Each structure stands twice: as C-alpha cells, then as structure tokens.
Amino acid sequence: MQFVQQRARLFLPFSYCFLALAFIFSPSATKALEQNADGPALWKISDQDSEIFLFGTVHILNPQLKWRSGKVNGAFSASNTVVFEAPADTSNPQKMQAMIAQYGINPPGRRLSGLLSPAGNQNLRAVLAQFGMQGSESNFEPLRPWLAGITLAGLQIQATGGDPNAGVERILSAEAVRAGKNIQYFETDEQQMQFLSGLSAEAELYFLEDGLRQIRENPDQINELVTYWLAGDMKALDELMVSALAGQQEVYRVLLADRNKGWAEQIEELLAGSGSIFIAVGAGHLAGGDSVQEFLARKGIAAIRQ
Questions:
Q1: Cut 0.90: pTM above it
Q2: Nearest 5°: CA angle at 223, between 216 and 35?
C-alpha cells in the first residue's frame, strides 16, 4: 500500500496520464525546438478590460528541457492571476491516502491480475521488466485499473528522465508564489480522481490494457508527442492523440471533451471580470475539435494564436 500511495501522489493532475498528454525530453525534441524558436503554443483571449493567456503544458518533464520562450515569459509576467487544472497537493499525505483508498483501491477479494486478460497480464509483466521492476506485479494487485494505468504511465516517463518537479505547472506555480500572484484552479484533486474512478468497468479496464499495449508496441510515441509540443504543431499533436485514444471514446469524453467544455465556461466567467490571467493546462486540452478554444468559439469568444 505504501508503494501505491507514494506513486499516486506523484501523478496528479491525472489528465497527464494519457500517452497523448505525457511528454518527455528526447534528442528529437531538441531538434524540433531548434527548428521552431517560438516553442510551445500560446493563445490570447481579450476584451475591453481583460486579457487571458492560454498555454498548453506538460506535467512531467526532464529537467534538461528548455521550453521557455519570450512570449510565454512575457505573458506570465504580465498576469496577476494564474490558473491551473488542479492543486496536485502533496502537502497533506493523509488526505491523499484517504482519497486513494476511496477511489483507487480494489474492494477486498478483487485483484488486478484477475481483471486483466491473459494478454494484459503478460504486457504488465513485460512493461515492469522494461522499467527494471521484474517481479513487482504484486505491488499493483490492490490497484483499480485506472490507478494502475496512471502509475505505469508515470513510471514510463520517470524511467526516461522525467521528473514531476520539472513539470511546467510545478515550475510556474513556484514562480507565481514567489511573485505574489493569485493562484486559482479549475478543479480539485478529488474531482480529478472522480473522473477516472467514475468510468464504466469496461472503459476503465480498456484504458489500462490499451495503455500497456501502447507502451510495449510504440515506446517512441511519447518522443513524437514532445516534438510536436515543442514545435507548437497542434494539428500533428491532435492526429497522434486521436490515434492513441482510438477505441477509448468514453475516456476521451470524460477526461477531455467534458472537462474542456467546463473549463470554457469558467473562462467565460473570468473574461467577464478584469485584469490579466495566465491559464496553464495540459497541451492535449488545446488540440482538436473538442479543444478548449473550440468550446470558447461556440460561445463567440476568440482565442488568438500568438
């Protein structure tokens, strides 16, 4: 149980867990950054008395990655309020442990290996061996499939040099505190757990099994994604996301489309106020036909690429 609690605390906000939202540093990513000095994409929403910047992030990164750009730095510096997805609060381990026990642990008598298909169990063993964790399957037995998927995705990133402390949100949050900026969140940590724990049993299991399959069959997919993110190529990012989430329509709706719609409603409320606001959310939420910008456009609110 201690292993579960330690790992789960690392991986909020949970939207990062999609392969489409989990980015790491790679040589190909460096090349992309050199080819496009503008870096990751940034949008601006404005009216007479307010401006809102919308920036796509990655939640876990290699500390060596240089992702900052002049336009991002300028927008962040100009903003007096910063909005993130969720607190990802690791300062209260007792509270986090209670939420993990409530939403992420199987009921007595149910084991993860008993839920997985033979191919899923085989892939789990192979993936753990890939991470240098042979024979550690028993650590995952208490986990519900969604939490196992989150944990394995995080292990994949960490195995290749990713560090939660180097993630965009961790860095910007610390800077916002030092600068005395107002910090707000679209969601709570508990809400994010509820999104995944509320999936149907079929969707939750497929989420894990398909994630295991992708880790084994396409280990370079994450490198492709970070390349597109650094280059600001949202079209390519969307195409790769669609491929990664093929067959996971319920997961796509619950963790992306529905949340994007809700965030657009909150942004509309923020726009009704005044001042400068910097919003930093996972890059996958800003790509494709159900992006935050698309939901804003349906409200007549234009997000202009910078």
A1: no
A2: 160
